[in-house]
Design brief:
The chain is an all-alpha fold and 57 residues long. It is built from three helices and no strands.
Length: 57
Amino acid sequence: MSKYTELKSFVDGLEDDFGKFFDKGNKAAGTRVRKAMQDLKKMAQDIRAEVQAKKTA
């Protein structure tokens, strides 16, 4: 369950940058959001691989 907690805290930590970009138009916050989305994608892939490995084991 630690993967879920890690994922949730990561997404919760993005709230400020999302607000700064979408509400205020801060371009630097947009860059941080884009980088975070790449990191989120990698985290999701890692979790998928782990789930698949446990499922087939």
